[in-house]
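To: structure subgroup
Subject: Chain for Friday's discussion

All,

I'm putting the inputs and outputs inline so they're searchable in the archive.
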Amino acid sequence: MAFSVNNGTSVCTGEVKLNEWQHVVAQVDGLTHRYWLNGKKAGEFDDKKPPPGKADTQNVMIGRTHEAQREFLGMMDEVRIWNRALSEEEVIEQMGKGYFEFFAVDPKLKLATTWGNLKAQQR
């Protein structure tokens, strides 16, 4: 599986493997698109069209496109959207951080999470 920005104007050169946890980053910095897979650069493309900007009223979609009926068939966890481009060092640093460093509450210790886990085991 590959991933892209802006309906394929640039496409990650790495392969996102099936049935494995992967850390993926897609980044737009001006007219440059960058990709990382598991902390390693997986493509950089200059002079690319930026995604729609502030005037765009469409919803942000991750794992699906507005243009085609393609959808990501899998699970995503700990999605983060930044309002600036991260440096390569920041991408690697963020890959190592878990949700504890971003969220004040541990969802694993909450009743709703425990109840959901119990119900899932009963199926």
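Points worth raising on Friday:
The chain has one domain: 4-98.
The first strand starts at residue 4 and ends at 5.

D.
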